[in-house]
Amino acid sequence: MLILQINDVLETRSSNIISRANYRKRLFPTLENYKFPEIMRGMPRPINEEEESAEKYEFIADLTMKGIPVSQGVTKGYVRVALTLEEASNLKPGEILITYCTDIGWSPYFPIISGIVTELGGLISHVSREYGLPCVVGLQGATKKFQTGDYVLLDGKSGILQRLPKPE
């Protein structure tokens, strides 16, 4: 917890903050066992974490799209569909950005997102490699098939984007 959150708990006894603290307490034993390399590039990923893959999941045709992999990596998370930079300003840390295309103006958001999907490729898509972000391009219609708040698996190695049931 952050020091400000601790103060909030002490002052307000917010149920939202208490439930978040309990969740983190349950998660800590798993996170404590992760080992990280001495030198990292992009988003930190434990070296002993099981590699997630789209191959583990049953494919449902209307909820799965295959595009062109640009930057390897696999992530699961909530989607933020943003067609403009103004809409991108609503991005939250860890979300997977789905947009029509990107240019240099989108790069300030790369440090907070966990993956990128575009309908149209572009030079800036390759910047995702520098940030260690899974990236898939060429997913025509992705901005219409997926909605903000969908929970997805993005496999930057195979180029697959798949909607998953939301975690409980």
Descriptive account of the structure:
The protein is α/β, with parallel strands linked by helices. Helices cover 24% and strands 21% of the residues. The chain contains 5 helices and 8 strands. It has helices at residues 3-12, 15-32, 85-88, 127-131, 142-145, and strands at residues 64-66, 68-71, 74-81, 96-99, 115-118, 135-137, 151-155, 160-164. An 8-stranded mixed beta sheet has the order 1-8-7-3-4-5-6-2, with no helix packed on it. β3 (74-81), α3 (85-88) and β4 form a beta-alpha-beta unit. The mean pLDDT is 82. Residues 92-159 form the PEP-utilising enzyme mobile domain. GO terms for molecular function: transferase activity, transferring phosphorus-containing groups. This is Putative phosphoenolpyruvate synthase.
Q: Which characteristics define this entry?
A:
168 residues; single chain; alpha/beta; 5 helices; transferase activity, transferring phosphorus-containing groups; eight-stranded mixed β-sheet
SSE layout and pairings?
Elements: H1 3-12, H2 15-32, E1 64-66, E2 68-71, E3 74-81, H3 85-88, E4 96-99, E5 115-118, H4 127-131, E6 135-137, H5 142-145, E7 151-155, E8 160-164
Parallel strand pairs: 3-4, 4-5, 5-6
Antiparallel strand pairs: 1-8, 2-6, 3-7, 7-8
GO molecular function: transferase activity, transferring phosphorus-containing groups
Organism: Trichonephila inaurata madagascariensis
Domain PEP-utilising enzyme mobile: 92-159
